[in-house]
Design goal:
The chain is mainly α and 191 residues long. It has 2 domains: 87 residues, no CATH class; 101 residues, 2-Layer Sandwich (Alpha-Beta Plaits). The protein has a 3-stranded antiparallel sheet, with helices on one face. The protein is elongated and about 65 Å long.
């Protein structure tokens, strides 16, 4: 019993350490963006990013046994590389979202302006691979903010997302598009 508590305490200590390393890097980024080099500005950026990381809780790293005894510098650079990778993956997701947003707006505008009716509305039960509430909310916001689709509900077990879409020719194709293009990009950010 005591061994389990020690392991939990060690895990919490490691998470808090990684949050501190992340917060240091993000505080430096905060200073660069605010262009005000003061200790108060650094402390504000550090505390703000630390609280956000604790709240979000998504940025923890599993540590392998062989990495536990590695030096602080190696851990620091691994954390920085992970931050850069996640920022890049987030940027890719945002660019893809903007592309989809523009494309969907054009399709809906054409639908409104033409007398023909091309809509094939459907409600789809989408099987989720995402695990956390934060990841699911990113997906639901992505779908809801895109014209022509709307997230209706998430099942209580968080394994199914109910989506209404105006243009569904093939349900399997619709599900594969979300799974391979949107959900995969979200999962890439958090691995």
């Amino acid at each position: 019993m005591e061994l389990i508590n020690k392991n939990k305490i060690n895990l919490i200590k490691r998470k808090l350490f990684y949050y501190a390393v992340y917060s240091s890097v993000l505080a430096l980024l905060w200073i660069i963006l605010s262009s005000e080099l003061t200790i108060y500005n650094y402390l504000f950026g550090f505390i703000l990013s630390y609280l956000i990381l604790i709240y979000v809780g998504e940025l923890s790293f599993p540590i392998k046994k062989e990495e536990r005894k590695s030096s602080l510098i190696i851990v620091f650079f691994k954390v920085i590389l992970t931050i850069i990778r996640r920022i890049w993956k987030s940027f890719v997701l945002i660019v893809y979202f903007l592309y989809e947003l523009i494309k969907a707006n054009i399709i809906v505008t054409i639908e409104i302006l033409t007398p023909n009716f091309y809509m094939q509305p459907a409600v789809i039960a989408y099987p989720l691979e995402l695990k956390t509430d934060f990841q699911i909310s990113i997906l639901t916001n992505f779908l809801t903010l895109t014209p022509g689709s709307l997230t209706l509900d998430v099942s209580p077990d968080k394994k199914t997302l109910f989506i209404h879409s105006m243009y569904v020719k093939d349900t399997d194709e619709f599900i594969n598009t979300i799974k391979n293009k949107i959900e995969k990009k979200i999962l890439d950010i958090f691995i």
